[in-house]
Design goal:
The chain is mostly helical and 502 residues long. It has one domain (30-264, 284-479). It contains 19 helices and 2 strands. It has helices spanning 2-6, 21-27, 29-35, 39-68, 73-109, 113-148, 153-168, 170-185, 190-212, 222-246, 262-294, 298-334, 338-365, 367-372, 379-393, 396-411, 415-439, 445-469, 479-501; strands at 9-10, 15-16. A two-stranded antiparallel ribbon has the order 1-2. Strand 1 and strand 2 (15-16) form a beta hairpin. It is globular.
């Protein structure tokens, strides 16, 4: 009976000892790749599928922009004016999901499976409730928002329909974002990648059907793009939830796990609030910029919209790379490998700066052709969008470096540092520079565009200074929990051994 006791493995509690220990390590092979071996391989093992997944995720917007662009400049403006608003809503809840994903990654590094499962369920519960409240509020106040923004009559109807359908899809979007963050945190980013491949393909098929109509399906115009996206989001969430409930991919959620744990919720709230403020302030800053840009007319707004579509092709994978840095830093911090986390951050910053600088040079050279892909028959918008791209593209490397450093700070649990950097970037630099240069100088629209590279360069240098100072290395979220778990583990071991002897 004593030998039998030593074979007991309690996966849910993270309690593993005796001969079964090797089996547990085998289950975490993907995680070990992030904690051991060459730095470049460790980072790219996670970064490559994440960047690819983010690129595919971005094609939702690109596909919508491609088909909506066939409806003309007003339709493009309708989508452009709506995107920042829905982004603010997503950002409010995504801050809490960031907190959950960082906690999960650090607990994975600390090899505490029980807390991985618990954090996943509680974070999903919290974010779901937040998303439902935001969806209802957004749907109801959408007309007031568009009126406040001064959207023209030609744009208003399409923008309202698109915005309201986007708000309906908010809970589904939130939950799938959570699923992706869970898979990323446990080192299995390829799983959501396969799901996104299928749903993006489906979205490409559904977009023209819902936008232009086919057979018994009426033409919905701009709203059709949002309906197509909503349909694929629901499908993606259903697949993701089935994976989490089956528990064979590193996270196992049971329905009983959704019983509120107020102690964890308080901890996650305190950790996630700065991240939520950061994300929402970024979204609100983009909204304020859109307010300012809208005042220069529909052509300027559409130019910003199509130029931003091109930027998204670069930004989305850059964000994916930032998430990869955040995850590997978090796992290594959780494992107590602080020096390795720092070296991974340095490498990530160099890669991000170099890659986005090259992308910026290409965008500068081919600006007109890139914009024309989205609005092929509107010369004014093509010219304006190309000018916007050329003005900001050569500073993309600094933007990439900033995002890499943000990943380091978040992965180490320093959400407040990341929040302050974001607030300074948007509210102290970008928006004031744009307002002053466009309104109080002869630059006009060009002043709007110059604000983007100026703020990116300055805040990248600030981020570098914070990283080199090194205070971010002093925080470790799992330390106190690990001490408690160690005591619990010793007690459980003794209990199991005693039971085995009996």
């Amino acid at each position: 009976m004593y030998n039998t006791a030593r074979y007991l493995v309690r996966k849910g509690d993270g309690l593993i000892f005796g001969p079964k220990r090797n089996m547990a390590k085998k289950e975490l092979t993907g995680v070990n790749l992030l904690l051991e071996g060459p730095l470049f391989k460790s980072l790219m093992t996670l970064a490559f599928p994440l960047v690819l997944a983010q690129l595919l995720q971005a094609t939702y917007q690109l596909i919508d922009a491609f088909w909506v662009g066939r409806l003309g400049g007003n339709a493009v403006a309708a989508v452009s004016v709506t995107t920042p608003i829905t982004f603010v809503s997503i950002a409010i809840g995504s801050g809490f999901s960031i907190a959950g994903s960082v906690l999960i990654a650090q607990f994975v590094g600390a090899r505490n499976q029980r807390m991985v499962n618990h954090v996943a369920a509680q974070t999903m519960l919290m974010v779901f409730l937040v998303s439902v409240v935001l969806a209802i509020a957004g749907f109801l106040i959408a007309p007031g928002i568009l009126t406040l923004m001064g959207v023209s009559e030609a744009v208003y109807e399409g923008a309202l329909k698109f915005m309201r359908v986007s708000f309906v899809g908010l809970p589904f979007n939130f939950m799938f974002i959570m699923f992706m963050s869970f898979m990323r945190s446990v080192g299995r980013p390829a799983i959501p990648l396969y799901i996104i491949m299928g749903t993006v393909t489906l979205n490409y098929i559904l977009d023209p059907i819902f936008i232009f109509g086919r057979g018994s399906i009426p033409a919905m115009g701009v709203m059709g793009a949002a309906v197509a996206t909503l349909s694929t989001q629901i499908l993606a969430l259903c697949i993701g939830m089935s994976i989490l409930l089956r528990g064979k991919r590193g996270v196992h959620i049971r329905f009983s796990d959704f019983t509120p744990d107020w102690q964890y919720i308080k901890q996650a709230f305190n950790l996630g609030l700065p991240a939520s403020i950061e994300q929402s302030m970024r979204g609100l800053g983009l909204t304020m910029m859109t307010f300012l840009i809208t005042s220069f007319g529909t052509v300027t707004l559409a130019s910003f919209g199509v130029g931003s579509n091109v930027l998204q092709v670069v930004m989305i994978p850059a964000l994916g790379f930032s998430q990869a840095i955040s995850t590997v830093v978090a796992q290594n911090m959780g494992a107590g490998q602080i020096d390795r986390a720092e070296r991974l951050g340095r490498l990530g910053g160099v890669i991000a700066f170099s890659t986005l600088t090259l992308a910026g040079i290409l965008a500068f050279v081919f600006a007109t052709r890139l914009v024309a892909v989205f609005v092929p028959e509107d010369p004014a918008v093509i010219a304006g969008g190309a000018n916007y791209l050329r003005t900001m593209s050569l500073a993309w490397g600094f933007l990439g470096f900033q995002l890499a450093m943000t990943g380091v700070f978040k992965g180490s649990g320093n959400m407040v540092v990341s929040m302050i950097i974001a607030l300074v970037s948007i509210w102290v630099l970008q928006f004031p520079i744009a307002y002053v240069l466009s309104r109080h100088t002869t630059l006009g629209v060009q002043g709007l565009w110059l604000a983007f590279p100026s703020s990116n360069i300055i805040i990248a240098l600030v981020s570098l200074g914070v990283f080199l100072k090194g205070d971010w290395k002093k925080k470790r979220l799992t330390k106190e929990v690990n001490e408690e778990e160690a005591l619990t583990m010793d007690v459980n071991k003794e209990t199991l051994v005693e039971e085995g002897i009996r």
